[in-house]
C-alpha cells in the first residue's frame, strides 16, 4: 500500500458505469473498513490524468462508443499501464475488461486495447444477457462466481492470461471460460455489482493491495444473497 489508507481509483465514471458497477468501489472500501483499513475513493473523469498513487484501479462496463473513447484516452494518458507495471491492482468489468486486452470491437470497428492482459475480443452472434456463474480458478481460493452479464463481445485468452472461471451458467468469454487474471490484474464480465455478489473476490483484491490475505469477516448477509443467486441458476 502506497500510503496509510488504501487508494481506490475509479477510472472514467463519466464514460463507463453500467449495471451498478459503482458498487464495486463501495464494497472494496467496506471490506477494507471491516478489517480496520482506511480507504480513499477517487473518481477520475475522462478529461483528467490517471493518478499514479492508486493501490486499486477500477474499470467498469460501458456502451460501445464510450468504451472506445475510454480506450483511446487511457492509451494517450499511459498512466494505467504505468501503475500496473509498478504493481497496482487492476479490477475491470465487461467493457473495462475488454479494453485491458490487445484489441476489441466497438460499433463494428476494431479498437486497440491497453495490452495489459494477453487476450483479444471480437463479437458473438448473439448478445450474452443473463446470469453468469461457475467455479473460480482454484489457485485463487475463492467460492463460485455469481454475476450478471450483458455484452456483445467474445473474448479469447492468450497463454499469459489465466481464465478466472469455468462457466456453468451463461457465456462469459466464450461459453467455456469467463474472465481472466494475470499477476494483480483481474477482469470479469460479471456485473451485479460483481464485488457485492462476490465479497471474497473483493477481499482478494484488497489483500493483493495490502500485501497479505485479509482475516475472515462475518459474511452472513452476503452469503444469503449468494445462496439466493446461486440457487436461482441451480448451482446450490
Ligand atoms: N460494449 C461491450 C459489449 O457489448 C461491453 C458491454 C458492457 O460493458 N456491458 O461487448
Automatic annotation (TrEMBL):
Spell out the SUPFAM superfamilies in the cross-references: Class I glutamine amidotransferase-like
What this protein is called in its record is Lipid II isoglutaminyl synthase (glutamine-hydrolyzing) subunit GatD
Q: Name one GO biological process term.
A: cobalamin biosynthetic process
What protein family is recorded?
Belongs to the CobB/CobQ family. GatD subfamily.
Matching entries from PANTHER family are given as: DETHIOBIOTIN SYNTHETASE (PTHR21343), LIPID II ISOGLUTAMINYL SYNTHASE (GLUTAMINE-HYDROLYZING) SUBUNIT GATD (PTHR21343:SF9)
Task: Please name the source species.
Answer: Virgisporangium aurantiacum
Looking up HAMAP family in the UniProt record yields: Lipid_II_synth_GatD
Q: Which residues bind substrate?
A: 127
Residues at the catalytic site: 94 (nucleophile), 191
This chain is encoded by the gene named gatD
Molecular functions per Gene Ontology: carbon-nitrogen ligase activity on lipid II; glutaminase activity
- Enzyme Commission number(s) of this protein: 6.3.5.13, 3.5.1.2
**Which positions fall inside the CobB/CobQ-like glutamine amidotransferase domain?**
7-198
Instruction: State the reactions this protein catalyses.
Output: beta-D-GlcNAc-(1->4)-Mur2Ac(oyl-L-Ala-gamma-D-Glu-L-Lys-D-Ala-D-Ala)-di-trans,octa-cis-undecaprenyl diphosphate + L-glutamine + ATP + H2O = beta-D-GlcNAc-(1->4)-Mur2Ac(oyl-L-Ala-D-isoglutaminyl-L-Lys-D-Ala-D-Ala)-di-trans,octa-cis-undecaprenyl diphosphate + L-glutamate + ADP + phosphate + H(+); L-glutamine + H2O = L-glutamate + NH4(+)
Q: Describe the protein's quaternary organization and the partners it interacts with.
A: Forms a heterodimer with MurT.
Amino acid at each position: 500500500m502506497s500510503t496509510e489508507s488504501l487508494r481506490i481509483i475509479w477510472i472514467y465514471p463519466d464514460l463507463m458505469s453500467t449495471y451498478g458497477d459503482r458498487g464495486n468501489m463501495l464494497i472494496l472500501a467496506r471490506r477494507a473498513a471491516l478489517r480496520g483499513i482506511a480507504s480513499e475513493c477517487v473518481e477520475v473523469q475522462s478529461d483528467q490524468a490517471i493518478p499514479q498513487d492508486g493501490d486499486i484501479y477500477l474499470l467498469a462496463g460501458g456502451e460501445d462508443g464510450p468504451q472506445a473513447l475510454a480506450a483511446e484516452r487511457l492509451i494517450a494518458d499511459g498512466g494505467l499501464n504505468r501503475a500496473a507495471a509498478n504493481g497496482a491492482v487492476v479490477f475491470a468489468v465487461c467493457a473495462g475488461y475488454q479494453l485491458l486486452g490487445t484489441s476489441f470491437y466497438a460499433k463494428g470497428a476494431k479498437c486497440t486495447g491497453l495490452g495489459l492482459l494477453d487476450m483479444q475480443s471480437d463479437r458473438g452472434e448473439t448478445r450474452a444477457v443473463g446470469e453468469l456463474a461457475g467455479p473460480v480458478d482454484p489457485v485463487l481460493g475463492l467460492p463460485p462466481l455469481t454475476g450478471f452479464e450483458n455484452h456483445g463481445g467474445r473474448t479469447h485468452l492468450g497463454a499469459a492470461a489465466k481464465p478466472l472461471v469455468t462457466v456453468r451458467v451463461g457465456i462469459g468469454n466464450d461459453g467455456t471460460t469467463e474472465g481472466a487474471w494475470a499477476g494483480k490484474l483481474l477482469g470479469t464480465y460479471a456485473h451485479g455489482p460483481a464485488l457485492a455478489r462476490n465479497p471474497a473476490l473483493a477481499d482478494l483484491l484488497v489483500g493483493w493491495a495490502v500485501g497479505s490475505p485479509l482475516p475472515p469477516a462475518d459474511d452472513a448477509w452476503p452469503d444469503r444473497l449468494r445462496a439466493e443467486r446461486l440457487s436461482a441458476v441451480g448451482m446450490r
